[in-house]
Design a protein that fits this description.
Blueprint lengths: L2 H21 L8 E9 L2 E9 L8 E7 L5 E7 L3 E7 L4 E9 L7 E10 H7 L12
Antiparallel strand pairs: 1-2, 2-3, 3-4, 5-6, 6-7
């Protein structure tokens, strides 16, 4: 009868060790450049992983628009439950959209415009938001 508690203790310890190891293993660091997409001529959408959830929660991706020379503007964040993306309708305006999965059983997506940015105004401000500056603590 003494073997049963011992086996349960060992299994609990192994499960906990596996869970802890999976949280910090692999490419799961914070402040990592995630992707860059060109929106229009010399204007880009940059994504950085600013919070890595590991095995217990989700990653948080922060989105910026930038021309890499005169500005980088933080425009929002998203996780696995929604998506934030940017579109450029001209060389001077960038629209930021949020796409959420609002379906309970089936995937039903709802997209809404969050904000529009004038590229010329951002260039005049000449401000660089640091990647992951507004991250969770």
């Amino acid at each position: 009868m003494k073997k049963l508690p011992c086996i349960a203790t060992i299994l609990s310890f192994l499960s906990l060790s596996l869970l802890c190891a999976s949280c910090g293993y692999g490419d799961c660091g914070e402040n990592k450049h995630f992707s860059t997409k060109e929106l229009s001529k010399n204007v880009y959408e940059e994504e950085y992983r600013c919070y890595c959830g590991g095995a217990t929660t989700t990653d948080v991706i922060y989105v910026y628009i930038s021309d890499s020379i005169s500005f980088r503007k933080y425009v929002g964040k998203y996780d696995e439950l929604d998506l934030l993306f940017c579109e450029s309708k001209s060389d001077t305006i960038v629209d930021v959209y949020q796409k959420k999965d609002v379906g309970m059983i089936k995937h039903v997506y709802k997209t809404k415009l969050l904000k529009s940015y004038n590229i010329n105004d951002l260039k005049r401000e000449n401000k660089f938001d640091e990647p992951c500056e507004k991250r969770w603590k």
